[in-house]
Design a protein that fits this description.
Layout: E1 10-15, E2 35-36, E3 39-40, H1 43-51, E4 56-62, H2 66-73, E5 82-88, H3 94-99, H4 102-105, E6 110-114, E7 117-119, H5 124-132, E8 137-143, E9 151-156, E10 159-165, E11 174-182, H6 186-191, H7 203-213, E12 216-220, E13 225-227, H8 232-249
């Protein structure tokens, strides 16, 4: 009998946090509402999901600016999609924010994007591979010049052997980017986590759980990727990339 998988139909965009690395720009707004060329940052991950066929999207954000997201994005009708919203009471890490998606996801596999990660990449093939696989989680890796601000993946003989969070001296240049695939087991995994030294529930701890269990897959991202919320420089680089992309297509 052939294995029939259910397609992935739900997406979660995490757009919380204090955005302290972008002060003073983020003193009065959420960083995901800052402009990247001709639209707010949050619009790019939404468009990535919609291009991949995901029309049911949950946006998780923090207190203070949640109403601004609703004002900007509304119900999702303008995108031909349906948007739901959840509010993270305090900045407690990606894995904490992810727990707010449990009732939205229910059962089945889903995709998670960080709202400041932008890329030229078709998500659909990777989602289809994950839907067809027995894996419970999958991460995306990108070779970068300085992986120190990220979780760093160590691969040996095509096998993922370790993920180290923000290492001072990385042994690999493969950063774990803000794009993840999970099944519903991730919510119970996240509930068991202990806060890190930063006082946050770390997504690297979630991914290492699946790595130890042998149920974590990985994909190496091709094409451009930008972490537009990492620094002022990365925000400018993302903007310049989008300007160039628009001028090429026009």
């Amino acid at each position: 009998m052939t294995h029939m998988s259910s397609p992935i139909t739900k997406g979660v965009i995490l757009a919380g946090g204090k955005g302290t690395r972008l002060h003073p720009l983020t003193r009065v707004t959420n960083k995901h509402l800052l402009p990247v060329y001709d639209r707010p940052m949050i619009c790019y991950p939404i468009e990535s999901l919609i291009r991949a066929g995901i029309k049911d999207i949950l946006i998780v954000t923090g207190r203070g600016h949640a109403g601004h997201f609703v004002e900007l994005l509304e119900s999702g009708q303008a995108y031909g999609a349906h948007f739901s919203y959840a509010v993270q009471e305090e900045a407690g890490g990606i894995a904490q924010a992810l727990q707010l998606a449990e009732s939205f996801v229910g059962a089945g596999k889903f995709i998670v994007l960080l709202g400041d990660n932008l890329f030229d990449y078709d998500l659909r093939p990777a989602m289809e591979r994950f839907a067809d696989s027995p894996k419970q989680a999958s991460i995306f890796l990108k070779a970068v010049s300085d992986p120190r601000p990220y979780g760093v993946a160590v691969i040996s003989n095509d096998k993922l052997v370790e993920i180290i969070e923000k290492p001072a001296a990385p042994t690999s240049n493969l950063a774990v980017i803000g794009l993840y695939l999970y099944d519903e087991s991730v919510f119970s995994v996240a509930r068991e986590l202990k806060p890190s030294g930063r006082g946050e529930l770390e997504i690297t701890d979630v991914n290492n759980h699946y790595l130890r269990a042998g149920t974590l897959g990985y994909e190496i991202l091709d094409g451009w990727w930008g972490d537009s919320g990492e620094s002022f420089d990365s925000l400018v680089q993302a903007t310049l990339h989008m300007v160039q992309k628009k001028s090429v297509s026009s």
